Amino acid sequence: MVELKLKRGKEESLDRFHPWVFSGALSHEVPDSVAEGDIVGVVASDGRFLGVGHYQIGSIAVRILDFGRTEIDGDFFRKRLEAAFGLRKALALANAENNAYRLVHGEGDFLPGLVVDIYGPTAVLQAHSVGMHYAREIIAEQLVGLDGLGVRNVYYKSETTLPFKARLDQHNGYLIGSAEDSVAMENGLKFNIDWLRGQKTGFFVDQRDNRSLLQRYSPGRRVLNMFCYTGGFSVYAMRGGASLVHSVDSSEKAVMLTDANVALNFPDDTRHKSFSEDAFKFLDNMDGGEYDLVVLDPPAFAKHRSALRNALRGYQRLNYKAMEKIAPGGILFTFSCSQAVSREQFRLAVFSAAAQSRRKVRILHQLTQPADHPVNIFHPEGEYLKGLVLYVE
Ligand code: SAH
């Protein structure tokens, strides 16, 4: 195993168990013998061994898998997956009412570069690093072998998550098993999960707890679910007793997914209507006071730090439009899933929107991602989902 040496002082973050080694921290060029995705060792300037990880070309040069001299093999992945499953068992997420949850959340499960979502008998695996791409088959085998997990099929979905320049020519497809029942259950509600064509792993399991909270606020309210995608919030609002639910997404396909999921749970229920429209346009065109409960769950406005300023402006504009139009005494659920936007920055953007709307706005809840998306305490960047529930007078 090739060992990469760090510049003096650059070992500090690794000594605090942060799992990323930035390329600028390396004291020398990476030898030609090291290929992208290889397992490398990392040593301090005095030669002290710091850890092993996956090498990648880019600003994060090494993602540390273990802070010791550990062999990265099937046994390593089995132990990490067992630990991840152990946590999910403690959360009691697999039960008669629920079989959709995240089993592996990258750094949050000490497996940087890997995401695994479970939908009943099917695991959807996403590699965000070249190293995890190469390890995909070993990981798939371990997933199927994991006692009590009940996974029979492993679908690999990394066409859009791997660095384009790596030229891996990766294809989405089943590594083990084949297509099976694609209806998953979340808190007793049914969802058709399209991991073949859907975004990310086909469903956003990270809003589970926040959807439950929304259900509590739904009785008798007129609900607008903006950026609805698969209609998660819409279905919970229906169950909660909303008087009407309108779902909006600019993607025609998303609107179809929403309609299908609503029909799956509430066939022939005339309270629901969906619109394939741009969110900003929809908010501009609607009358004031039409909705008492509004959800804003847009895609990440900032995928990178460079887009931060525009992203913050986008959040402000969007929230302003919603606050301007929501009925008096309205409840606004507003989110940001951009990792590059901090909790403070998001709050400031929403604060600016509130000031601009000149309405009295109070914070009722401060929301985050659920426990199956744990944040490694040494890797605070893993906290990406931020939400506020506001009361708008
Ligand atoms: N709230 C969803 C997840 C939203 S994902 C859930 O709980 O699962 C973001 C969605 O926003 C995508 O479906 C995407 O199609 C949609 N979208 C992106 N830009 C949009 C725009 N300008 N107007 C409306 N929808 C948009």
Structure classification: alpha/beta
The molecules bound to the chains, other than polymers, are: S-adenosyl-L-homocysteine
> How many H/I helical runs?
10
Mean pLDDT: 95
Share of β-strand residues: 25-35%
Total strands:
19
Give the helix level as a range of percent: 25-40%
Question: What characterizes the major β-sheet?
Answer: 7 strands, mixed
Poorly predicted spans: none
Briefly say what this structure is:
Helix content is 28%, strand content 25%. It is built from ten helices and 19 strands. The strands form four sheets. Strands 15-14-13-16-17-19-18 form a seven-stranded mixed β-sheet, with helices on both faces. It has a five-stranded mixed β-sheet with strand order 1-3-4-5-2. A five-stranded mixed β-sheet has the order 6-7-8-9-10.
Would you mind describing this structure in some detail?
This protein has helices at 12-15, 74-91, 130-134, 136-145, 208-217, 232-240, 252-265, 279-285, 308-325, 343-357; strands at 3-5, 20-22, 39-43, 49-55, 60-66, 100-105, 114-119, 122-127, 153-156, 173-176, 183-186, 189-192, 222-226, 244-249, 272-276, 293-296, 330-336, 361-367, 386-392. It has 393 residues and is α/β, with parallel strands linked by helices. A seven-stranded mixed beta sheet has the order 15-14-13-16-17-19-18, with helices on both faces. The chain has a five-stranded mixed beta sheet with strand order 1-3-4-5-2. The protein binds S-adenosyl-L-homocysteine (SAH). S-adenosyl-L-homocysteine binds next to helix 6. S-adenosyl-L-homocysteine (SAH) binds at residues 204, 207, 227-230, 232-233, 249-251, 254, 278-279, 297-299.
